[in-house]
Amino acid sequence: MSYSEPTSDLHHTDTAPGDQRLDGAEIAEGVKSYLVGLGLAILLTIVSFFISGTTLVWGPSIPVALVVLTIAQMGVHLVFFLHITTGPDNVNNVMALAFGVLIVLLLLTGSLWIMAHLNHNMASINQIMEMQLERGPEVRTVTASGIVGPTATAPVGARASGVIQALYCDANRQVKAGQLCAKVDPRPYQIIVDQSKAYLAAAEARLEKANADLAQAKAAFESHEALEKRQAISRKAIDKSRKAFERAQTLTERDEARVAELQAALHAAETNLGETDIVSPIDGTVVSRNVEVGETVAADSETPPLFVIAADPTLAHIDAIIIEKDSGEVKLGDKVSFTVEAYPNRKFSGTVTQIRPSAQTHEPAATYDIVISAPNTDLLLESGMAATIRIVIE
To answer: What is the pLDDT of residue 209?
Structure first.
């Protein structure tokens, strides 16, 4: 009985797994391939997380970049771990891979299309629900048109004439109410204050002496009156005592009037001295400065203001008009939402802060003016913008 010897001319692709005999060089090459693949896979994973969490990459390009990195990750696994190449013996595998990538791209594109249309439809449903709530029995809205008002400004002039000694505010600088912006030379006013204090001190000393004399004259007169009742003093002495008492009263009243006059003068002098401090009347920003150190200013309302300060621009005011039938329902503090023509897709919010009868008499129906205050931290609302307003009535 004969046995056939195993042939030695078999092709390497005809050997079963595990039958191959690899030398040391081939094993080292395989390990190196796995390590390279592992390093590339880790690097692609780190880059994917970085792109999805950073703001350095343009937003709309992030999904595309993630798709590219995903395909690259798949390629790394197929080449370095599954050893699928473009060789003649792997043609079917490559075609299967290409078909799989095509299917993934189709699924990804279809999912994005479905999600985009679903988001659009959901937005429409939300708008319908919002309109239904506004028309419901508990919540309704009053619509109006308005104009974003200009930012309030406050001119700051000199209230004391003199030479500007120092400046503390400049254009584009933010200031607080009561903050010192400039100083008029206070020395002439300080001299008047010091003189007034001296005059007042002298007058008060005279008044103090007059009060003492009055008290003494009163005591003498009362003593003489007591003696007169007992007929122990002459009529002439009584008359003399009465006249001395009346004269002391007159002098005291005169000194009291003088003290009151000097007190008023001192108060006025101190007020004038205080007005050498030029301060900001409001919180805001200095729009312009029209004075220099050493310049002489006059306390005259006809002169141009030394500073112009604009109120806080982060708070906007919208002036609107509502008809009389709605005025009874709109209340101070009602919540308001509105849009402006410049940003039709941006909804702003605010609060009703003023309600007053309109001064316009030519309207066919009575109207009311309302003022709406709205935060404007991003400074998008500018003076003159037309606003479409909805006031929520609960």
So the answer is: 93
Residue 296, domain member (yes or no): yes
CA atoms of 329 and 393, how far apart (whole Å): 7
Confirm whether pTM is higher than 0.70.
no
- List the strands of the sheet with 296-297, edge to edge: 277-279, 180-184, 162-167, 296-297
Supply φ then ψ for residue 164, to 5 degrees.
-70, 120
Residue 358 belongs to domain with CATH number: 2.40.30.170
Q: Do both 181 and 280 map to the same domain?
A: yes
Is residue 267 in a domain?
A: yes
Report CA dihedral (160, 161, 167, 172) to the nearest 10 degrees.
70
Strands 277-279 and 180-184: antiparallel
Range of the domain at 101: 22-117
Q: Name the domain count of the chain.
A: 4
87-101, 227-241, 314-328, 355-369: the lowest-pLDDT one: 87-101
CA-to-CA distance for 349 and 373, rounded, in angstroms? 9
Tell me whether residue 229 is in a domain. Answer: yes
The three-state secondary structure class of 244 is helix
pLDDT, tens digit (0-9, with 9 covering 90-100), for 36-61? 878 888 887 888 778 777 766 666 66
Q: For residue 137, is pLDDT > 70?
A: no
> What CATH number does the domain containing 286 carry?
2.40.50.100
- Tell me the β-bridge partners of 33: none
Phi-psi region of 235 (alpha: psi -120 to 50; beta: other; left: phi over 0): alpha
Q: Which two tokens stand for residue 194?
A: 């010091």
Q: Are 180 and 211 part of one and the same domain?
A: no
Residues 267-286 have a mean pLDDT of 91
Instruction: Dig out the tokens for 165 from the structure.
Output: 């000694």
| Same domain, yes or no: 40 and 87 | yes
Q: Does 127 reside within a domain? A: no
Place of tokens 């190196």: 32
Q: What is the pLDDT of residue 3?
A: 42
